[in-house]
Amino acid sequence: MSAETPTLNPGQEAVRVRGLRRQYGSRVVIDGLDLSIRHGEFVALLGESGCGKTTLLRALAGLDVIDAGTIVSPAQPAVVFQEHRLLPWATLWRNVALGMDDATGRPLAEAALREVGLAGREDDWPRRLSGGQSQRVALARALVRGPGLLLLDEPFAALDALTRIKMHVLIKELVARHQPGVLLVTHDVDEAISISDRILVMRKGKVAASYDVGTAAHIDREPLRLQLLQELGVDIRNPSDPERPRKAESISLAA
Ligand SMILES: Nc1ncnc2c1ncn2[C@@H]1O[C@H](COP(=O)(O)OP(=O)(O)O)[C@@H](O)[C@H]1O
Ligand SMILES: [Mg+2]
Asked: Cα separation of 89 and 38, whole Å?
């Protein structure tokens, strides 16, 4: 690491990563990775299973040590995992206000639950919730402290298709309102295209490719989709005519 203290461009960057390395024993999983995310920017991260996406997220969340490089992040990041990780013995508002004192936590939790569409459910119990509702509580818990960086590790992967679409709409609204930088790990190319401003492909421990999606109305999705699937090692040739790509109707990557 250099002697110079890295600083963020205030009001712009939610996180800046330079030369990140993480290894387990002699196995290098992240190898000189660079990444920047701006406030309000929604970045999706695609990559084959085992390529190091969760390892990166845990490093950004400060849940794990790093072996080299720098991670500069101004605000406490918040994480939502594929499993909601709610405490079964605590009411919803206590799950959301985890670690806060009651007087401060209760009104903040109520507001956060209202934002995710669960107004009036403060005193309910996690076991009474559906999978989608549980992820809404997990989202409320992540947002309640106003994080500058929101880290999402396949949070919608276990939900049914309709619930997943509702969650996409909700998360887009919440990000537009609160303007955290977002890094969403997903296996789903279509999800990445429909929800994010920028798509990164992780390979060999680095960000190997980056695609600006911007306002989806202005891009032609199908070539991008085929390109991303190819990046991820999915064979998209038409079996009856190997020269022509087949229409990738519902290809998403297996976990
Ligand atoms: N705690 C750990 N100890 C040893 N190896 C690990 C540990 N966590 C992850 N790995 C290995 O690091 C690689 C990347 O894992 P992970 O970040 O979970 O991948 P992804 O989320 O992209 O599927 C995998 O080969 C995995 O087996
Ligand atoms: Mg993972």
From this structure: 37
How far is it, in rounded angstroms, from Cα 2 to Cα 189?
A: 37
* pTM, full prediction: 0.88
Instruction: Quote the CA–CA distance of 31 and 82 in Å, as a whole number.
Output: 25
Q: How confident is the model at residue 235 (pLDDT cuts 50, 70, 90)?
A: confident
Residue 178 CA to ligand 1 centre (angstroms): 31
Residue from 28, 33, 54 whose mutation best tests the ligand 1 pocket (most atoms within 8 A of CB): 54
What DSSP string runs through 92-161? HHHHHTTTS-HHHHHHHHHHHHHHTT-TT-TT--GGGS-HHHHHHHHHHHHHTT--SEEEEESTTTTS-H
**What is the DSSP secondary structure assignment for residue 213, as one 8-state letter?**
-
**All structural domains of the chain with their residue ranges:** 13-82+138-245, 92-128
CATH architecture type of domain 13-82+138-245: 3-Layer(aba) Sandwich (3.40)
Read off the pLDDT of each residue in 171-198 and give the average, rounded to a whole number.
94
Q: Whose CA is nearest to atom 9 of ligand 1?
A: 55
**Residue 33: helix, strand or coil by DSSP?**
strand
